[in-house]
Amino acid sequence: MVYDLLEDGYQEGGIWPIIAGAIAGSAAYALSDWAVSREGARSRKRSGDQQVNAGEGGGLAIAIGSLLDGIPESVALGLGLLSGRGISIAMLAAIFLSNFPEGL
Description:
By secondary structure, the protein is an all-alpha fold. The chain has helices spanning 2-13, 15-41, 58-82, 89-99. It has four helices and no strands.
């Protein structure tokens, strides 16, 4: 799925938009991680009694993680629709499987 998008992106706009997107995505992730850690969620992945409560920054970590997780999927779906080519079954399957709960 990602390789198809990279190939299409390269053919449409060249290498520089791909590089800019990768840098922007990396910067967004790093800045978000820094902001969440600064707001008290530094110990959000600790075990036992060391785990941070949601009211102490853990909820913010979940919210930002969900937001960052959904952006690439939404962009891929939106671009597929805007291009008029529709959405491939492979892309829908990949998004579904990546969001499928592990417990089911």
